Amino acid sequence: MNGLSTILIVFGLFLVGGIVSFVKQKMPMNLIVLLSIGAAMCLVAGVMRLEVWN
Fold first, then answer.
1. Greatest CA separation found in the chain?
2. Is 2 left (phi over 0), alpha (psi -120 to 50) or beta?
3. Which tens digits make up the pLDDT trace of 12-22?
């Protein structure tokens, strides 16, 4: 794992924690959807940058 993939995965997991928190606080659904799209993009980008795929 290199540094950028680690940062992307950790940031994606941080955003997933934010999603859980926002759902518990009953925040607006479009804000939760926007946050989940960002979290998914960070996690996918981090996983795709791993050296395992080469």
1. 42
2. beta
3. 999 999 999 99
pLDDT recorded at residue 51: 78
51 residue type, one letter: E
Taking the alpha carbons at both ends of the chain, their separation in whole angstroms is: 12
Q: What is the domain count for the chain?
A: 1
Domain range for 10 is: 3-53
> Any long-range contacts for 39-45 (C-beta under 8 Å, 24+ apart)?
39/12, 39/13, 39/15, 40/12, 41/12, 42/8, 42/9, 42/11, 42/12, 42/15, 43/8, 43/9, 43/12, 43/13, 43/16, 45/8
